[in-house]
Amino acid sequence: MKRIFPVINAVIAISFGLIVLLGYFITSVPALTGFRALLLQWSVLLAGMAVLVGVGNLFSVHMQKITQKKPGALYSMVLLVFFLITFVIVLVVNYAPAVAGFPGLIDFQNILLNGIMVPVEVSLMALLTVTLLYSTVRLLRWRIDLKTILFLATALLVLISTGPLTAQLPLMSNLGGFIQILSTGGARGILIGVALGTLTTGLRILFGADRPYGGK
Amino acid sequence: MIPPDMIGIVSLGMVVFTAILMVIFALIQRRFPLSIRSIPAFNRIRRAVSLVVEDGTRLHVSLGHGNLQTQFGAAAFAGLSMLRRLGEITSLSDRPPIATSGNSVLNMVAQDTLRTAHEAVAVEQSFDVNNGRLTGLTPFSYAAGVMPIIRDESISTNVLIGNFGIEVGLLAEAAERQNAVVIAASDNLPAQAVLYAASPDPIIGEELFAAGAYVQAGRMHSASLLTQDVLRWLIIIAMLGGAILKVVGDLLK
Q1: What's the total number of domains in chain B?
Q2: Is residue B245 part of a domain?
Q3: Strand B132-134 to strand B58-64: parallel, antiparallel, or no bridges (unpaired)?
């Protein structure tokens, strides 16, 4: 059976992949487009279930950390407590109308989202700014070559040309515009490369050369 | 006006043409193995992975938060082939590899890939499904969940390949603080700019999709690399040809 299952998996994945691909390009065959839409609906449903499984995995990993007293077990405990509180509150507010009317419950849900989650993520973004500044300085230590100098000079020019001094320095604004044109061209080149990579990656899966669904 | 079905058929024709090219190159490589240019980051992966097995530390592969149902899934698939190959090598280490992701479907596939890699080398210790971890469902919560793993789990090599946004800068920095090796690539343009500054050997553009060919994941990976090169030249010729025809057309008006 250990040999048969990977083959069956591959046959199912490749044939369904081909149907979805054909249904995407050939829209004049209703049976094909209909079946493609059905397969995509199934995949959306399965992805929804996968979120539950993923949350279960998150819970299990942190539970393991607490029971094995690994470093950071205290943070895991805080995470699990807030995880359970948020889960119960959101469940009650959305699916138990009789209890949802309890004073302050909806406010508490909003505090969890807008008062904790959003500010924490924004502060991580702020931390990233400092990290990037530090990385830029370190870049000069790692490799000083023409590309690095161009990279840093361009970053500096873009910063100046988009800053408040633009009105006083029209030359900077023009230079910034010129860099924008160059960067748009470069970005399109990279995106074309990424698109080609995406295409060949998809084809490797259709050929069965890559089997992310298991099997050799 | 061109009917929509005609556009679809022409696009399908291009996909079929790409597929034929890949098969031809894969067959050619049986007799004439492909020699590929050296990319420093992939050379570092080989050295770092050997180190993981020798000194009993751990490999960490982060796959980003690309949804497999969208076009961002392709970068995640590139990361998964890398995970599969590196997982096989490092499953022999005292500490098995860890895969992290920010998407639940991707996490399930990563767990399965780790299991397959583990079974392929038939190591005696049992497989722990918690080595594939979902650390968060939003980009920054995902990064916040990965950073303690990089710090606390005796990780000496971090391979970050997949769909990341600018938050990948935090992960690269966390790894640098531990003096761990970082090899990072993303299909996202701002993330590539961040990685250019934050990682010693940046992987730019479509080099991300060449990862499989550099870790000897199979002939099809090298064939797809060649196909990408051929298609890129065809696109360049088409673009230049289009520009020349436009100029000539304007001159003749």
Answers
A1: 1
A2: yes
A3: unpaired
The total domain count for chain A is: 3
Residue B176 resides in a domain: yes
pLDDT bucket at A1, cuts 50 / 70 / 90: low
CA angle B214, B46, B79 (to 5 degrees): 55
pTM, full prediction: 0.88
Q: Are strands B58-64 and B98-101 parallel, antiparallel or unpaired?
A: parallel
Q: How far is B109 from chain A (nearest CA, A)?
A: 6
Structure tokens at A148: 């690095």
Work out the pLDDT band at A52, boundaries 50, 70, 90. very high
B2 touches chain A (CB under 8 A): no
CB contact (8 A) between residue A194 and residue B209: yes
Q: How confident is the model at residue B217 (pLDDT cuts 50, 70, 90)?
A: low
Q: List the single residue in A54, A121, A207 with the smallest CB-CB distance to B104.
A: A54
pLDDT score of A28 more than 90? no
Q: Is some CB atom of chain A closer than 8 A to the CB atom of B12?
A: yes
B179 touches chain A (CB under 8 A): no
Report yes or no: B64 and B101 within 8 Å, Cβ to Cβ: yes
CATH number at residue B195: 3.40.50
Tally of CB atoms within 10 A around B185:
31
Task: Kindly state whether residue B3 falls inside one of the protein's structural domains.
Answer: no
Name the residue in chain A with its Cα closest to that of B227: A200
Domain that holds residue A44: 1-61
CA nearest to A123 within chain B: B140
The reply to whether B22 touches chain A by the CB within 8 Å rule is yes
Confidence of residue A215 (pLDDT cuts 50, 70, 90): low
Q: Which residue of A has its CA nearest to B129?
A: A57
Residues of A in contact with B227 (CB under 8 A): 200
Under 8 Å between Cβ of A128 and B167: yes
Q: How many helices (H) and strands (E) does chain A have?
A: 8, 0
Residue A104 lies in a domain: yes
Residue whose tokens read 């990089």: B150
Closest approach of chain A CAs to the CA of B214, in angstroms? Answer: 15
* Residue A66 within a domain: no
Q: Using the beta-carbon criterion (under 8 Å), do B204 and A124 form an inter-chain contact? A: no
Q: Kindly report, residue by residue over B10-68, the tens digit of the pLDDT.
A: 889 999 999 999 999 999 988 887 777 788 888 888 888 888 888 888 999 999 998 88
**B152 is a domain residue:** yes
Please state the rounded mean pLDDT for residues A143-152: 87
Report the distance separating Cα A150 and Cα A84, nearest Å. 50
What pLDDT digit, counting tens, does each position of B159-184 carry? Answer: 999 999 999 999 999 999 999 999 99
Tokens, residue B58 = 């751990």
Question: Do A113 and A147 reside in the same domain of the chain?
Answer: no
Residue of B nearest to A75 (CA): B148
